[in-house]
Amino acid sequence: MSTSTAPRGPHRLESDIIGSMLIPRDALYGIATARAMENYDITGVKLSAYPDFIRAFAFVKKACARANFEIGLLPRNVHDAIASSCDELLKDDALHEHFTVDVIQGGAGTSTNMNANEVIANLAQRRMGLPLGDYSAVCPNDHVNLCQSTNDAYPSAAKLAVVFRHTSVVHALRELITSLRAKGDQFGGVIKMGRTQLQDAVPMTLGQEFHSFASTLEADLAFMQRNVDQLYEMNLGGTAIGTSICADARFSHEAVKALSELTRLPLQSPKDFIEASSSTSSFLLFSNILRRVAVKVSKICNDLRLLSSGPRCGFNEINLPAVAPGSSIMPGKINPVIPEVTNQVCFQIMGADQTIATASEAAQLQLNVFEPVIVYNLLNNLKIMTNALNTLRTKCVDGITANEDACKKSVDNSIGIVTALLPLIGYKKASAVAKEALETGAPVATIAAKYAPAEKVKEYLKVEAMTCAGTIEAR
């Protein structure tokens, strides 16, 4: 607990077990936050950059205050002051500037928890007409943090922040899927060559290709929505290591109940508080889901870049919207910059997932002290994933057009269509047709007529029929 003396010019003096510090007079944070600001100049990214995290803390601290009031540990005036201060944080983002701690810090998030405790306590003091930093009526530790530890308040707020932020990713992913589906419908009649190992395979439609992009992401959308409930476990009341030391036996139930009512989420307490104290498995799972989305989106971007390569010496099957000149030296060049930037976001998410996995594994005994780097990377991944998906959709996918002539030419010139003759002439003869066509440049149909009636060959080589299953006649 810190103590304060009267303001000294533009500053006030606060003290703790280590000593005294001058705090800006109007700052809502206190000495614990000020020490963290001195100690952790790491990323340059402050808590204020993540408003969902701050709002999550406001919900957690309001729920805890309600629980402590209900069980008789907080007087009404203190509860009301804390609850109203939390409401201010929920409504007024301008107050978030007082969350000044670097997101990556030592102490398992203690500095973040104390930043929240001090801001809420000072807002409460101000509402009661008392000076900032006084803490005589509302103390960051004894009142705002009552029946809590960083080790239950921090992960609970972090989980809520991920839940809040994930809705933006879900929306962005759903919109991208819709856009890809629309292009699939639009390109349904465009016949092109499919490829395996970058070699000609068999015909398909451009529409089928875009529908497949949508389908692969639909699976991840469902997986993300189905597994968000893994973040609904709140270990509030477990305090330091899960034994609930310094917490009333009634607190955990009342706090989680209040938090569930405030957020309108089906939150619950863990079956084993000690296990929950050190576990980051729900963060790890959600990071894995984002990595899976990133892998698939990156593959789609790879395909878009290949399919649009050219314009004269590449595939040139689709046109991506031109959004910027492509070169400082080559006139007229347009590059696929939107898929490129999306690729890079996906690489970042995959790499950050490895950091999260490493930090999760590094837990020791009853606590994982590396939660800050986990939370930072997960919240950042959610943010940049949302932005990348929206950018890919609006700046690229929505404006894609098909080069139907190029697609048709590739089919007409391909030897891959010989595959359709397997049911008619068999693998060995079809291989001979392919070999001769490649060596002589003669049309596949002409050579295949040596092995089967020309009309039958023509029937089997209808490219439209090659894009879906049909009826096979016995030879």
Give a written overview of the molecule.
With 475 residues, the protein is mostly helical. It folds into 3 domains: 3-146, Fumarase C, Chain B, domain 1 (Orthogonal Bundle); 153-405, Fumarase C, Chain A, domain 2 (Up-down Bundle), CATH 1.20.200.10; 415-467, Fumarase/aspartase (C-terminal domain) (Ribonucleotide Reductase Protein R1, domain 1), CATH 1.10.40.30. The protein is built from 16 helices and 7 strands. The protein has helices at residues 31-39, 51-70, 76-91, 110-127, 140-144, 150-186, 206-227, 251-263, 273-278, 281-307, 337-361, 371-395, 404-412, 422-440, 444-448, 454-460; strands at residues 3-4, 11-15, 20-24, 191-196, 199-205, 318-319, 401-402. The strands form 3 sheets. A 3-stranded antiparallel sheet has the order 1-2-3, with no helix packed on it. The radius of gyration is 31 Å and the shape is elongated. The chain starts with a strand and ends in a 15-residue tail after the last helix.
How are the elements arranged and paired?
Elements: E1 3-4, E2 11-15, E3 20-24, H1 31-39, H2 51-70, H3 76-91, H4 110-127, H5 140-144, H6 150-186, E4 191-196, E5 199-205, H7 206-227, H8 251-263, H9 273-278, H10 281-307, E6 318-319, H11 337-361, H12 371-395, E7 401-402, H13 404-412, H14 422-440, H15 444-448, H16 454-460
Antiparallel strand pairs: 1-2, 2-3, 4-5, 6-7
CATH third-tier fold name of the largest domain: Fumarase C, Chain A, domain 2
- The computed structural class is mainly alpha
* CATH architecture identity of the largest domain: Up-down Bundle
How far the N terminus sits from the C terminus, by CA atoms, comes to 89 Å
Mean pLDDT: 92
CATH superfamily of the largest domain: Fumarase/aspartase (Central domain)
Rg, rounded, reads: 31 Å
How would the global form be characterised? elongated
In total, how many beta strands?
A: 7
